[in-house]
Amino acid sequence: MQNFLGLLVSDDGVNFTHVKDEPIVTPDMLGFPYGSVQDPRIVKIDDTFYMNYALRPCAMNYYPTGTGLPERSYPSYPDGWGEKDEHWLTRSGILTSKDLIHWDYLCDTTPLDINDRDNILFPEKINGKYYLLRRPEEYVGESYGTEKAAIWITSSEDLIHWEEPKLLAKAGTEAWEQKKIGGSTPPVKTDRGWLVLYHGVDYDSVYRVGALMLDLEHPEKVIAKTKHFIMQPEPYYEKFGYQVPNVIFPTGNIVKDGLLYIYYGVTDTAIALATVPLQDLVDHVMQEGQ
């Protein structure tokens, strides 16, 4: 089964309707008609919307495997494409739009020979540079400073050419994030720093959510990180679904009247909403992360 991206609209942030019946982004638009495009993170800088996306060249089989994890369905591409293992790695990039409906390809944000996803732009330039969060799966080991897949950060002056990433945050000692962590939602600017939600995965592939605070002027500096998760799968629809069970996966957030609206996927089945007073969450992260 393939994944496509659609567009919903709402006046209150709770009740949504479709903008159009067709998807706004498909893998075919990106050159992979048998693939899947997923995990969009969108920010607006000046008059342009930027969408980070993850593109899988192949789809996933949704039939039960008995393991809680799906299996890949490998298609046949022409001209020998797909003969190398790296051809099937997830690739991350940026699309741009003026209206959220019509999107243009801008760039790949990570090397195509590594599995790198959870790419997320900051919603504004900082000291003249764009900043981007990443989660390269292969950047593990003593030379990288982390034994598990972690959150990295990089910067660019033009959105095309990116500096070598720096390790930003790695999994803690708590069981809920021991397998890996990755960025979830675009950073939210507060008076105490950049608030970033991130997901942590345990050895049973249960996804939970934590939070970071980054320095406003130097976002490569973590000033606080939650020790305990702030969200976990609880109702049945967050525990059972089409694909991987026990998944909550935020990719979008907005602030309205002091309330943080967190939009998150649940088990590849639905989109859910959680809200929290922004200041309360910031206070919590700063207090627990000190």
Automatic annotation (TrEMBL):
InterPro entries: Glyco_hydro_beta-prop_sf, Mannoside_phosphorylase. It comes from the Bacteria. One of its GO terms (molecular function) is hydrolase activity, acting on glycosyl bonds. Keywords: Glycosidase, Glycosyltransferase, Hydrolase, Transferase. PANTHER family: GLYCOSIDASE (PTHR34106). Belongs to the glycosyl hydrolase 130 family. This is Glycosidase. It comes from Paenibacillus cisolokensis. The lineage of its organism: Bacteria, Bacillati, Bacillota, Bacilli, Bacillales.
